[in-house]
Amino acid sequence: MKIAVIGLGKIGLPLAVQYALRGHEVVGVDISSTVVDLVNRGVEPFPGEADLDVRLRSTVASGRLIATTAYDAAVPEADAVVVVVPLFVDSEARPDFAWMDAATASIADNLTPNTLVAYETTLPVGTTRTRWLPRLEEGSGLREGDDFHLAFSPERVLTGRVFADLRRYPKLIGALSDAGAKVARDFYEGVLEFDERPDLDRPNGVWDLGSAEAAELAKLAETTYRDVNIGLANEFARFSEKAGIDVRSVIAACNSQPFSHIHSPGIAVGGHCIPVYPRLYLWNDPEATIVRAARARNAAMPVHAVGLLSALVPDLSGLTVAVMGASYRGGVKETAFSGVFDTVDALSAVGARAVVHDPLYSDDELRALGFEPFHRGDSAAAAIVQADHRDYLDWTPADVVGVTAIVDGRRVLDPAMWAPASYAAIGAPLATASPAR
Fold first, then answer.
1. Cα dihedral value 279, 85, 340, 233, nearest 10
2. Exposed, middle or buried by CB within 10 Å (0-12, 13-18, 19+), for 33?
3. Whether 273 is catalytic
4. Residue 242 catalytic?
């Protein structure tokens, strides 16, 4: 097949490589000429994706994958066009379709008959049918169901392990017609391979959910579940701190039977997915009180972490506090919706001077994000662990000279290694808490 992949980001590029590895002719489109140039030289534009560097070089060298900024070099005569362009959401849960609208217009301008257009970007329910369908038909002059097919198939992978996740998880699809569903199924069966999953109630592979709307909701539901679950865990953690209970042991006990799946509490829920998609769901369902409450609880955790620090150091005004980790999670160089921003803001609000360390970011990169860099061995009166980078596991007070208190926002540190500094953690009993009766 000839396949066009629109958007060569942290999901789109591995998808393009995967399709090329299966022997197909793939043209990737991206608005960034820098990304296009790097891809065409076989150089990964971003680090951290397992096996991407080797597989990218292989597929580019074979000629099966090329990149371009021009839609007219990729879309015409394509058997399939896969769209992985970002959708942004503001603080009021309103989606910003600007980039996707522009990409859809460019696809429509170059669309030719007998093409499958598959959107993989997570969307509010109804977007494929009510937004993309009329734009594609009007812009192309073609009719969906007769001249081309339109489907939604959510990406379900995690950055850093995209290739493994593509094999492990069923590929969900939802089309606008039975014919479109067959074309979508045939396409994805031709570009993906699946691991055996005896834990599933049906064979792993391409699963047709019957409509684009069902596939759209499936992605929102599985990610919103995680945000709500973490919000509940954070509720338990905050109560446990006051009650003198270690919530970590409680959660482990609960999860020892198969009907409990409580997630881990923590200082923040970050990344492109988990803090964003509940807002898309709220756009569809503004009366979803549970979803809204969980999102509010999770968004408040950086302020709560600073509150824990204030309990150890009552007056933070004028003191330097090191925030350990700019990334939204350990081992990933990405700051999308990272808790570092709200943590720094909360420290500034109490008069502290926040400095930020991250082993994956240079000083210039941290400054570009608006942070003052901290180096291992620098001085600070206190510290907060924001990202669970492995590097921090062997840090001690010698690495934060003069530290008197530390808040472990991810429960990854050994408190004994930080003595004599005061220690607090999300979900751990406060030093002043009385044991629960």
1. 40
2. exposed
3. yes
4. no
DSSP three-state, residue 123: coil
Q: What pLDDT was estimated at residue 355?
A: 98
Three-state secondary-structure class, residue 96: strand
Radius of gyration in angstroms for the set of CA atoms belonging to the chain, rounded to a whole number? 24
What per-residue confidence (pLDDT) applies to 433?
41
Catalytic residue among 219, 242, 254, 333: 219
Write the DSSP string, 308-342.
HHHHHSS--TT-EEEEE--SSSTT----TT-HHHH
Count CB neighbours of 253 within 10 A. Answer: 11
Q: Tell me the CA distances in angstroms from 364 to 118, 345, 361, one per residue in order.
A: 38, 20, 8
Q: Where are the beta strands (DSSP E) in 69-194?
A: 80-83, 88-89, 95-96, 115-119, 148-152, 171-175
Query: Which has the closest alpha carbon to 378: 394, 360, 398, 396?
Result: 398
Pairing of strands 171-175, 206-208: parallel
Average pLDDT over residues 73-100: 91
**What is the C-alpha to C-alpha distance for residues 53 and 315, in angstroms, rounded to an integer?**
48
Q: What is the pTM of this model?
A: 0.90
Cα–Cα distance measured from residue 2 to residue 20, given in angstroms and rounded to the nearest whole number: 10
CA distance 107 to 89: 23
Q: Choosing from 10, 171, 273, 333, which is the catalytic residue?
A: 273
Q: Record the tokens describing residue 265, joined without a space.
A: 């509490």
Half-sphere exposure of 174 (CA within 13 A, CB side): 22
pLDDT reading at 246 higher than 90? yes
CB distance 118 to 171 below 8 Å: no
Mean pLDDT of 41-60: 95
Whole-number pLDDT of residue 92: 72
Provide the residue count of the chain.
437
Which one, of 86, 76, 85, 152, lies nearest residue 108 by Cα? 76
Helices (H), 145-259: 162-168, 178-191, 212-243, 247-254
Contact 173, 153 (CB under 8 A): yes
> 212-237: string of b/e by CB count within 10 Å (b at 16+)?
bbbbbbbbbeebbbbbbbbbbbbebb
Name the amino acid, one letter, at 229. N
With contact defined as beta carbons under 8 Å apart, do 117 and 133 qualify? no
For the chain, give the longest Cα–Cα distance: 72
Angstrom distance (rounded) from CA 305 to CA 346: 9
